[in-house]
Design a protein that fits this description.
Strand content of chain A: under 5%
Oligomer: heterodimer
Number of helices of chain A: 11
Order of helices and strands of chain A: HHHEEHHHHHHHH
CATH architecture of the largest domain in chain A: Orthogonal Bundle
Shape of chain A: globular
CATH superfamily of one domain in chain B: P-loop containing nucleotide triphosphate hydrolases
Distance between the termini of chain A: 35 Å
Number of strands of chain A: 2
CATH class of the largest domain in chain A: Mainly Alpha
Helix content of chain B: 25-40%
Chain lengths: 257, 263
């Protein structure tokens, strides 16, 4: 009984106080403002919104569920393509010093560029909004995957390589039994960083490209001056981002030695 | 009698920023089948370098190295290596770690059941049958080192090379593993080259102790034959005058003739 109470006090009370304080400050702010809705008003609006998440009235007026799924779909495709190219590239860069030196100036220069700066190039090349948004996700998630995979390969302990040498393992065995498992935790870190960035970027990209998606929805509700929905969108984006992160941490735990 | 390992006039230098650094020079050593050789010397004397040369992990800058009359041109399954820090792959079970070695050497000629049997025999030799399905992080340091020995022996090497295999273990575990190693070597009639910095270990296990001078340009200072009868028993040896004479000879070499200046 005492242990349960202690657990409660240590793990649940502080976050509960934090959330309560946050809601309190929010409602204080809302009370002094004519335009900002408070927590209660936002909650009511959210209940209505989520009671019918999958309606489809017009192409620009669809349920919140469709918006979320469309955004996740874009992130999934852009991120998947980035993994498909970025991870093998990271392996090669990590394994071959020449390639590392060759690509390093380009990677270092392009990595700090805001992914949105790539949007016009995407629009130009693909002549359509949707592939351009996917392209932006691709660009934003490829760098962490290349860099972390390459780092994992570079940090491979010499001991393991010596084992490979004295056992005379084939290149394939070296890859499947040593290189890949040893690099996996680094790769997963790259994937986690990439999906975090991708989810950050999708909102901004969709604001610019339009279509169905959580980012465009925010922009649309701004034009409708529906502030409750904008606040709901912020929470939705935050919670989904958190869930993606937790999911990947769980996967990474499975592969840590 | 054919020599198993022949090292003639071997020199090893490394390229450094300050130019060539000569680690070893004029190394001559011939090892008989079934012999247990230890390499001993102060740190930095190149004893691990010499072992890595025999393993084929390094190539000598000069000289000839043969194993069973064939030139050593790289690592090979005829020389099993046990590393200081066990070097088991953490994502594979003990069985799989040993299997990796067995598969490479016998995979082309033998079926799966025979390969598994070889792995099990190797684990049985080091008394780890019960830990076969465990991962390295689930077993103790001494057990890991035993898996390392099983992995090396499973390839049926001509020579077993051990680089301070018990250096990272506590004294009791070390003594236990030394006893086990003596039994294994007696049972398998293995030829062993072992690097150590432990004088008692060297005298207890060796047929000959190769004592190395201090680097740079280290070479073999003296070779001491340990003519104590086998099997040896550490308790009996504790009161054996000849054992103490041999031990004294190694100590004299290390701390008088090759006394290292305070680092």
């Amino acid at each position: 009984m005492i242990r349960i109470r202690k657990h409660l006090a240590e793990h649940w009370v502080p976050p509960a106080i934090g959330i309560a304080l946050f809601l309190f400050l929010w409602s204080m702010l809302a009370q002094g403002s004519e335009t900002l809705p408070g927590p209660a008003k936002t909650w009511d609006s959210a209940v209505v919104l989520f009671s019918d998440p999958f309606y489809q009235k017009t192409p620009n007026d669809q349920g919140i569920g469709w918006n979320i799924l469309n955004s996740l779909g874009r992130v999934g495709i852009g991120f998947g393509l980035a993994a498909l190219i970025g991870i093998p590239l990271g392996f090669m860069i990590g394994r071959f010093g020449f390639l590392d030196k060759m690509t390093s100036p380009i990677v270092s220069m392009l990595r700090p560029v805001s992914p949105l700066a790539w949007l016009p190039i995407g629009l130009l090349v693909f002549q359509a909004a949707n592939p351009a948004a996917i392209w932006v996700i691709f660009i934003s998630s490829i760098w962490p995957m290349i860099i972390n995979t390459a780092m994992g390969v570079r940090q491979l302990p010499q001991d393991y390589l010596n084992v490979a040498r004295v056992l005379n393992l084939s290149e394939w065995k070296v890859f499947t039994k040593i290189l890949f498992p040893a690099t996996l935790p680094y790769m997963l870190t790259g994937i986690r960083l990439a999906i975090g960035t991708a989810w950050l970027v999708i909102v901004a990209a969709e604001m610019l490209t339009g279509g169905v998606g959580i980012g465009f929805w925010v922009w649309d509700e701004w034009n409708n001056l529906n502030v409750e929905h904008i606040i709901i969108a912020i929470f939705v984006v935050g919670i989904i981002g958190l869930l993606l992160e937790l999911l990947l941490i769980q996967i990474a735990k499975r592969f840590s030695y | 009698m054919k020599k198993y390992v022949q090292i003639e006039n071997v020199q090893m230098s490394f390229e450094t920023r300050q130019g060539a650094f000569v680690a070893l020079k004029d190394i001559d050593l011939k090892i008989d089948p079934g012999e247990f050789i230890t390499l001993i010397g102060h740190s930095g004397c190149g004893k691990s370098t010499l072992l890595n040369l025999i393993a084929g992990l390094l190539m000598p800058t000069d000289g000839v190295m043969l194993c069973a009359d064939r030139e050593i041109a790289g690592p090979g399954p005829d020389r099993g290596v046990v590393f200081q820090n066990h070097s088991l792959l953490p994502w594979l079970t003990c069985f799989e770690n040993v299997h990796l070695a067995v598969e490479r050497v016998f995979g082309k000629t033998e079926d799966k059941a025979k390969l598994a049997q070889r792995v099990n025999e190797a684990l049985e030799l080091v008394h780890l049958t019960h830990a076969a399905q465990k991962y390295p992080h689930e077993i103790s340091g001494g057990m890991k080192q035993r898996v390392g020995i099983a992995r090396a022996l499973s390839m049926q090497p001509k020579v077993l090379l051990m680089d301070e295999p018990f250096g990272a273990l506590d004294a009791l575990t070390r003594a236990h593993l030394q006893d086990e190693l003596m039994k294994i070597v007696a049972a398998t009639k293995s030829t062993v080259v072992m690097v150590t910095h432990d004088v008692d270990e060297a005298v207890l296990l060796s047929d000959r102790i190769v004592m190395m001078t201090n680097g740079p340009a280290a070479t073999i200072g003296e070779i001491l034959s340990v003519d104590l009868p086998k099997p040896r028993n550490r308790l009996a040896l504790a009161n054996d005058a000849h054992y103490h004479r041999l031990r004294g000879a190694v100590l004299e070499f290390l701390y008088q003739k090759q006394a290292k200046k305070a680092a």
